[in-house]
Amino acid sequence: MIRQLPVWVLAGSVMLALNAGFINSVALLSFANNAVSHVTGTATIAADALVSGRSEVLFHTASILLSFVIGAIISGIIVGNEALQLGRRYGLALTIEAFLLFFAWYAFRTDHMSAEWLASAACGLQNAMVATYSGSVIRTTHLTGIVSDIGSALGNFFAGRGLLRQQLLLQLSIFLAFILGAAAGTLGFQQLGYDAVLINGIWVALVSVGYAVVLLRSART
């Protein structure tokens, strides 16, 4: 339960949600038209492909699912504990994510199917990296849980049980950031094509640098 929301938590969550919305929008508009920031729809497509015997679609969608899991595994190895706190190796995880996105950019430009694998792995890494803070679940690559939490918070408020303002602020910020990121991804793809993915890689690299700065300042105080 969030009583006080540190600026670095809010800023980091917003920046990562922007990134996820952006890359997911580009991936959906790409040659393969698959989501990469979440796996629910992809799993449904894979199940349909399995039943209908479309082996090529099944292979590709299952590969996207596996890539997301691999990204999450990498996050688990690097970051470890799910509780969000300063001092964990988020900088290293973000650097790896940035490289995955740079490789995805190259693969997108060559219309290679590995583009969505790399982008999905980057999202899986990011989603697993940020898990819980002060008892609240924080996810930055999809909105299902966030929207459910917003609805639950408002339901409790309407029932007269009070409103956890800081928690709702974080959830609404992530929701809006993802939507804005998706809109920016569409505009970026329209103007730059697959070169828009470079923006993702640079953006995540900047988030990594920002985290390093926060750590440095924290160590000095």
TrEMBL record:
Q: Which domain of life is it from?
A: Bacteria
Q: Pfam families of this UniProt entry?
A: DUF1275 (PF06912)
Xref: InterPro entries: DUF1275
**Keywords, comma-separated and alphabetical:** Membrane, Transmembrane, Transmembrane helix
Task: Show the stretches that span the lipid bilayer.
Answer: 7-29, 58-78, 90-108, 168-190, 196-216
**What name does UniProt use for this protein?**
Uncharacterized membrane protein YoaK, UPF0700 family
